[in-house]
Amino acid sequence: MDLFEYQGKRFFSSYGIPTSKGEVVEEVEEAVRVAKEVGFPAVVKAQVQVGGRGKAGGIKLVNSEGEAEVAAQAILGMDIKGHLVKRVWIEHASDIDKEYYVSVTLDRGSKDHLILVSSQGGVEIEEVAASAPEAIKRLHVNPIDGFTEDEARRLVAEAEIDVQARQGVEETLLKLYRAYVDGDADLVEINPLILTTSGKVHALDAKVTLDDNAAFRHPEWEEFRATQELDGRERLAKEKHLNYIGLEGSVGIIANGAGLAMSTLDVVNQVGGSAANFLDLGGGAGADVMAAALEVINTDENVRSVLINVFGGITRCDQVAKGIVDALQRVDIKSPLVVRLDGTNAQEGREILANYRSDKIQVETTMIDAAKRAVELVGEVR
Amino acid sequence: MAIFVDENTKVIVQGLTGSQGRFHGLRNRDYGTKIVGGVTPGKGGSDVDGIPVFDTVEEAVVATGATASFIAVPPKFASEAILEAAAAGVSFIVCITEFIPARDEAMFYNILRRNFPGTRLLGPNCPGIISPGRCNIGITSGDIALAGGPVGIVSRSGTLTYQALYELSEKGVGQTTCVGIGGDPVPGTNFIDCLAAFEADSETKAVLMIGEIGGSEEEKAADFIKSNMTKPVVSYIAGVTAPPGRKMGHAGAIISGSQGSAQAKMSALKEAGVTVAINPTEAGEMMVELVKSL
Ligand SMILES: Nc1ncnc2c1ncn2[C@@H]1O[C@H](COP(=O)(O)OP(=O)(O)OP(=O)(O)O)[C@@H](O)[C@H]1O
Ligand SMILES: [Mg+2]
How many beta-carbon contacts under 8 Å exist across A and B? Predict the structure, then answer.
């Protein structure tokens, strides 16, 4: 689960990392009020779950109520990389001397935690990574040993953090590692971590991704969950416990297993079509999940045909076919269905479908043929 | 020969009294796997369809001589179960549990590596391992596998593994062992472990490797194949058109650069001399052709 900056800052402050006081608002008038309260110059910041807001024009420095109004007006409702801005965070502008970069994340390659520190933080950090990778220092931390003060001291020196900021950055790093481990985060990132002109070290941004699998340890995450940004299709899918991602194409996809679903997207693409979604039914493929999946796909205006791709292992194909028939009695699916069943009892499954509503369902044996048929149907229906 | 398991492997099931453990444990036994015991704290002394249940892995190992464990417990208890098995001397652990926190995975992976180097963990969140006709630990349906080799299969994805097994079996091409390593961030066993074992296994003549987007394990496997494998490898990578994951920070980009995309993985594999298919059916067909020519 990704957090908005304002939530990430709350998360950080609960681990003692210094952040600016501010407030999140949804209305222009409110923005002006908060800007006045935090004091000018203030910063109006778009709250979207994506990096690079500054470069996209979603962050503005304001010096007066008038400017705050103009900025809030411009930013609220803005589209940043496909994310609609519904809220802005307003805080007092800091006097920045230096911008640093710090983060902790899991390194899947080395299977340990990786701490990154750079004295060249700020909005250009990815360019720094590409052009001067040595400017970003790395420390791998074995979870058994943890991250020690000595290591923090050495890392900060190695990264050539300014001498007057070293103690503050060390402390922040240790707290950030605590937040990452105890807080069950997949990523904690501060860019920029600043040194102010008065010599203080302070987090100006917060990028936090929490590990959903650890939710059972964190009842306090409930407040973050309420604001998760999902489109209508995704919200419905989530309620039905389906693994769903909305896309832009016209072939609705239902498959069992994430790998097979991905593979189905690939094949639809290879035969010249485009998928409307990614949908993984998970382990079983009984009538309930199938009905739920069809319901979600039904709400998608772009869908012109639906491709159901199921491989029967433990769930046998005849059970899957019965599930589809049952689901179709409950859900009035708008688009024609192409079903590809293979695996255990595939023949029995196909026969069940062949005898039912041949006007709506077409059965194919291979993934490629099924994908071709589904893509052809997109043309015909239109 | 098969890799990691064979017809003599004695297996206990941690969580045998739970619904998943019971269902799959009994299926595995029906397949012919030597399921010799179960472990559920507090239920020692009872049995599941004649299989004795013990309170601890240690007791089960002492009583049965098991060397392998099949773990089917909820995510909260998985970490403890894995470490208990390792401490009791189990040398091969298959954990099918899904949704384990990444922090726990990183921790037990490193504890196993440091303190129990003789223990191999397969998974978590994996379908398990099947050596057709000999041993099946996990959730793979035994009917879709065909004994006799010559193909070894290693895969990150569950359903694509079944798909691959089925396509080969349908065409009369058998498998030595099929290993599902699982798609979690910190898998206990990786592609290279399996490729090395297949390379060393005299019965295996060719390997089918199924990967997917994310991480850099396929790229590493490509390096390994290039410098260490003499047996031919056919591969399929799922996710060429997968939607890009929503990425929050910059750390991911800083760490992985251009690695991780299906394209990058496919090029690395081609570069290493691997036959790369563009969909799972094609991978099956290519393997069937390859086996004919052996
Ligand atoms: N309170 C503040 N006071 C002064 N400058 C600020 C403040 N907040 C942000 N900035 C400036 O705006 C830049 C971008 O802001 P921020 O890092 O919060 O957003 P971003 O563009 O989404 O970040 P990233 O580039 O890491 O994705 C900062 O590097 C900093 O220079
Ligand atoms: Mg930033």
Answer: 186
Instruction: Of B237, B238, B160, B233, give the one whose Cα is nearest residue B196.
Output: B233
Identify residue A250 by its one-letter amino acid code: S
Q: How far apart are CA A188 and CA A114, in angstroms?
A: 11
Tens of pLDDT, residues B210-247: 999 888 899 999 999 999 999 999 999 998 887 666 56
Substitution target in B250, B265, B281 with the highest count of A β-carbons within 10 Å is B250
Amino acid at B95: C
Nearest alpha-carbon partner for B93 in B12, B202, B1: B12
Residue A298 has pLDDT above 70, yes or no: yes
Residues with Cβ within 8 Å of residue B214, at least 6 apart in sequence: A108, B183, B239, B245, B260
Backbone phi, then psi, for B89, in 5-degree steps?
Answer: 90, 10
Q: How confident is the model at residue A40 (pLDDT cuts 50, 70, 90)?
A: very high
Report how far apart, in Å, the C-alpha atoms of A161 and of each of A155, A166, A197 are.
9, 6, 15
Which residue has tokens 């052996």? B294
| CA-atom Rg of chain B in angstroms | 19
pLDDT at residue A243 is higher than 90: no
Q: Is the CB of A320 under 6 A from ligand 1?
A: no
Which residues of chain B, if any, have pLDDT below 70? 1, 243-248, 257-258
Collect all residues with Cβ–Cβ distance below 8 Å to B293 and sequence separation of at least 6: none
The token pair that represents A286 in the structure block: 């009984």
CA–CA distance, B135 with B34 (Å, rounded to integer): 8
Q: Does A341 touch chain B (CB under 8 A)?
A: no
Task: State the pLDDT confidence band at A231, using cuts at 50, 70 and 90.
Answer: low
Q: Which of A264, A266, A267, A279 to mutate to test the interface with B (most CBs of B within 10 A)?
A: A266
Please state, in angstroms and rounded to a whole number, the distance separating the CA atoms of residues B8 and A233.
Answer: 50
pLDDT score at B258 = 66
Strand partners, A257: none
Residue from A90, A191, A197, A208 to probe ligand 1 pocket by mutation (most atoms less than 8 Å from CB)? A191
pLDDT tens digits, residue range A308-350? 999 887 778 888 898 889 888 888 888 999 999 988 788 899 9
3-state per-residue secondary structure call for A363-380: EECCHHHHHHHHHHHHHH
Rounded to whole angstroms, the Cα distance separating A21 from A92 reads: 7
d(CA A94, CA B13): 59
Distance CA(B100)–CA(B89), nearest Å, equals 23
Return d(Cα B220, Cα B14) in angstroms, integer: 32
Residues forming beta bridges with residue A251, ordered by sequence position: A275, A305
Query: To the nearest 10°, the Cα dihedral for B86, B88, B90, B91?
Result: 60
The one-letter amino acid code at A230 reads L
